Amino acid sequence: MALRALIWDVDGTLAETERDGHREAFNDAFASMALQWRWSVERYGVLLSTSGGLERLQRDLAERDDAPRSAVERLALARELHRRKNAAYLRRMADGAIALRPGVQRLMQEARDAGALQAIATTTGRANVDALLTRQLGADWIDTFAAVLCAEDAPLKKPHPQVYTLALRRLSLCPEETIAVEDSPNGLASARAARIEVLLTRSEYFASCDASDALVACNGLDAPAAARGVPTATRAQWPWLCDVHRRALRTRASAVSH
Known about the structure:
Layout: E1 5-8, H1 17-32, H2 41-47, H3 53-62, H4 71-94, H5 104-113, E2 117-121, H6 126-137, E3 147-149, H7 162-171, E4 178-182, H8 185-193, E5 197-201, E6 216-218, E7 225-227, E8 230-233, H9 238-257
Parallel strand pairs: 1-2, 1-4, 2-3, 4-5, 5-6
Antiparallel strand pairs: 6-7, 7-8
Helix pairs in contact: 1-4, 3-4, 4-6
């Protein structure tokens, strides 16, 4: 069974949006409400183990001594902060604050030239995806993708597999025909729960995360890429990925037959 599609995560995978994009937009939201709070690089790294911006806010407020004590009040505050944060994030993306990671456009083009399908599978909001990709790929960015699944489509956050299950359905493909491109433990777990192999391109916040469940692991698509049972590649290229994928399916079939 041939590799027919790449399914891309967004935050951390397409671009390093977390540290200098989302984190700073949250800080903008705090300032806009005259709150003397600021998420440091380190604090945001801790909060990233919780998927979803609203969920991160709720976690942070629950752990603060200076946040409202009532759960109802904390939720109301979190929702307003999240609304302001999203507006701040869109402004930052429109200003071109965050570029795509090296190798992303190259691999997208290689897949396109080979006739492969591509999709987005993220649990960030559609407006955030549109802001980033309109700036980086142009107003017609959506034409690159056969399916775009966002938080509005898949409310169950990663590591739940919902967004990948929906992506497979939209593409009319089975898991064995796809590879997910992810950057984090939650993303890796989400794709694997949907039985999709993963190209793990570790982002800044997850530079040392465990890659034992990934088919391919690298610290960027233009960096050396390691895969099970094949020599390390100088970078993650489409023909090499197809070979790795084919070998993995052959190994799996052999294990089942024995």
